[in-house]
Amino acid sequence: MLFIDLNCDLGEGAGRDAALMPLVTSANIACGGHAGDEISMRATVALAQRHGVAVGAHPGFNDRANFGRKEWKLSPAVIYQLVTEQVATLARFAPVRHVKPHGALYNLAARDPEVAGAIASAVAGAGGLILYALAGSELVRAGRRQGVRVAEEVFADRTYRSDGSLTPRHEPNALITDEAVAVAQVLRMVREGTVQATDGTEVPIVADTVCVHGDGVQAVEFARRLREELAAAGVTVRALTR
Question: Is 242 inside any structural domain?
Fold first, then answer.
């Protein structure tokens, strides 16, 4: 039997949290860096708990002006502290089950071993948390070296390059806007363990959790359709266990 976790970045002010929460199994909650404050964290945690959705921290660079999507050059020690503090902030409102870095921090950790190591160390230090990381990335390897439970993450609405990395957003065809194509990509990754890169290459990939972006105009409709298609394909949607 096949299982998959559906995660979504929430508590970021996109205005769709209430509609999306019943459709996902894990919530990555902004915890004061790129977005989020005490009011939003309390509200998003309460919503997650109401729907039985796993609560996760979504730490990012302290850069609200750029929504955490601009890469900052910080030392591993500073990144460790940043992640540690933001996870602890969310933990004031609910037990945290997992950690998924946000935006530029996530992308940097996917390719930079030092950044990945700092994040993995912070997650290891928090004790017993799952680290969400781009499938096949440096962050996956760093987490495993630190003895952290790692969930390899794939994306429904992003295209892949032949090395297994995501096509950068500024490049043509980085985003998949056709719902049918996005759903088909997810089903293939979950059932066959492969994804077709932009150059036609078949790339092996591990799919433990699928990211459903909550800021798209059709985010709710897409999440609902994805759940329906996964069920029809015999794939059970559920949160990961530690």
Answer: no
